Amino acid sequence: MNIKLKLAVVVTAGAASILMARAYSSAQAESNAAAEQQIRKVEEERRQAILHNDIKALDSLIAPEYTAVFQINGGRVTTKADELAMDQPGARKVESWSPTDVNIQIYGNVGLVIGLADVTDVLKGERRHIRVRYTHVWVKRNGGWQLVHRHTTRVVTIEGPEPPR
């Protein structure tokens, strides 16, 4: 094979590789954007289920192996059964749950959500107004997303200047 032909083959193969990499990258970005929208949807479904004490909806959104860690309860690890019991009508009434500063990252079949929420609820007869920083971990299974882990930390407002970054 002469040098010109070899060079043409190398250039063509290189160009094809670049085009394939770009196509893959574009397809991956579209897939991640679709997954992010799905996560936003299930996050809202979960929020509505909590606001309406909809245990059936929560049961379908929460994975069987679900765990959660809440600073408010001393960092004790809770399970799906604990979560569903807490959200039963009469146990706790969430009056408002307003998420802000929400960031979603997609890692294949895993969605990671980090956000801030202002919550007003009544628990055991006591009205609470709290702000929490939360992390939710969702896993895609059988075409749908399920919450497998949740962590919340109460945010304390401190007077004074912002800390250095």
Please characterize this protein's 3D structure.
The chain has helices at residues 3-51, 55-61, 80-86; strands at residues 62-70, 77-79, 92-107, 110-123, 126-141, 144-154. It has 165 residues and is α+β, with helices and mostly antiparallel strands. It has one domain (3-154): Nuclear Transport Factor 2, Chain: A (Roll). The relative contact order is 0.14. The mean pLDDT is 84.
N- and C-termini, Cα separation: 61 Å
Unreliable residue runs:
none
Shape: elongated
What structural class do helix, strand and pairing data support? alpha+beta
Largest sheet: 6 strands, mixed
Q: Number of domains in the coordinates?
A: 1
Strand order of the largest sheet: 2-1-6-5-4-3
The assigned CATH architecture is: Roll
**Beta-sheet strand percentage?**
35-45%
Count of distinct strands: 6
Q: What's the total helix number?
A: 3
* Mean pLDDT metric: 84
The CATH C-level class name: Alpha Beta
Name a few traits of the molecule.
alpha+beta, 3 helices, 165 residues, 6 strands, 6-stranded mixed beta sheet
List strands and helices in order, with pairings.
Elements: H1 3-51, H2 55-61, E1 62-70, E2 77-79, H3 80-86, E3 92-107, E4 110-123, E5 126-141, E6 144-154
Parallel strand pairs: 1-6
Antiparallel strand pairs: 1-2, 3-4, 4-5, 5-6
